Amino acid sequence: MQAWSLWGGNGEPFSSEGKWKVVAEDKHSLSTEIHLVDFVILCLGRFSDVPNIPDFHPNKGPEAFHGEVIHSMNYADMDYVSAANLVKGKQVTVVGFQKFAMDIAMECSNANGVELPCTVIYKTEHWNLPDYLPWGLPLAYLYFSRFSELLVHKPGEGLLLSLLATILSPLRWAFSKFVESHVNKKLGLAKYGMVPKHGFLQEISSCMIATVPEKFFDRVQEGSIILKKSPSSTFSFCQEGILVEGESSPVKTDLVIMATGFRGEKKLKDVFVSPTFQDRIVGSPETILPLYRECIHGRIPQLAVIGFSESISNLFTSEMRCRWLSELFAGTFKLPSIKEMEKDVEKWDKYAKQYASGQYYRRSCIGALHLWYNDQLCKDMGWNPKRKKGVFAELFEPYGPMDYVTS
C-alpha cells in the first residue's frame, strides 16, 4: 500500500489486492458472523452511540454526586412517559447549549415550572435561530446561492474568485450582521447576556446552528429555565450538585443531563481493528478528517464514509455523496492519484481553519460552501454543475435537493 500512487493500486473502487473482513456480533445472542467483502461503506454518522463525557479530576466527577447523571443520548432513548417521569418533581441541571440541551430544558420547564427551575450550564453563546427568515428574507438567499458563495474564499479557487471574495468581504460582514440583528431582536439575547462574541458566518461555517424551541427565552424570563455560564469548560461535581469555576456555592440539583455531544471520531476509529487504519482514518488532531470529497481516504482502499462530514442539510448532502459513490462504482470516473487527493484535503483544511470556529473545524463542515462542494461532485460524475435556468436564477436563487433530481 505504501508504494501505491493510485487508490487501491489502480484508482478504481474494486481491487484484487485484498478484501475486508467484517465481523458482526449479535449483542442479544452473542453470536458472531464473519463476512469477506470487496468494499465497505461506513454510514455511521457522528451524533450517536459514543457520548462525549468531559474528563474530571479524581473525586470531582459524577461519583462525588449524590444524584443521578445521564447523557442526553440516554434521555432521548426513553419513551415520552418515561422521560417525563424522570424529570418530574426534580431539580434538573442540563450541561450544554445546543439542540439537545435546549429541547430537554424545555421539557423540564414544562414538567416543573418555576417551582423547580431547570438550570442550563453552558460555555459558549451561539447564534441559534428562532426561524430561517431573518427580517422576512429566507436564509437560503443569503447563504445557499452562487452569489453568497462569491463572498467567501474557497478551496482551490483561482485568482479571480479570490479577488472577488476579498473585494466583497464588506458585504459578507453585512450579511452576518443582518442575520445577527434579527436573532438578537427576536430572542432578546442582549437582555440575557447571550450575544455571541463571534459572527454568524463563523457559526454557519462550523455547522453549529440549532433551532431555538418556541418560547425558550420566555421560559428564561419567567424563571423556569436558568442560564448559567461556566467561564471555561471546567466544572466539577460535589455531593449537592455542580461546582462552576469561580463560584463558591454549588448548583444544587437532583439530576444532571449531559447534553455535551458525541465522540464521532472515536466511533469511526474504533470500527477498525488495525492500529494503522485507526490512526489514518482520523488523521492529525490539528486537521480536518482527511477524506477526499468527504468520502474517501487516500490511504485506506475499498472503503467510503457517508454522513460523517456535516452540512446544514445532512440528508441532502449524504444523498449527493451516495450518488457520487454509485457513479464511482459504475466506472463513470476514476479517482485521482493519492497525492492529488491529499492536496485537495489540505485545501479544504485551510478553508475550515479560516472560517470555522477554532474548536469546531474538525467537524469538516461544508455549511457555507454547499454549491462549491456539489459542483465538484457534479464535475466528477460528468454532470453539468449549473442547474438553474437563466443567468439571474443561476446566480441568485438558492440551490436545494430538487435541483439535483436528474443528472
UniProtKB/TrEMBL annotation:
Listed cofactors: FAD
Keyword Amino-acid biosynthesis: no
MF (Gene Ontology): monooxygenase activity
Broad class of enzyme this protein falls into: oxidoreductase
Enzyme nomenclature, EC number: 1.-.-.-
Domain of life: Eukaryota
Alphabetized UniProt keyword annotations: FAD, Flavoprotein, Monooxygenase, NADP, Oxidoreductase
Family (UniProt): Belongs to the FMO family.
Designated name of the protein: Flavin-containing monooxygenase
Organism for this UniProt entry: Prunus mume
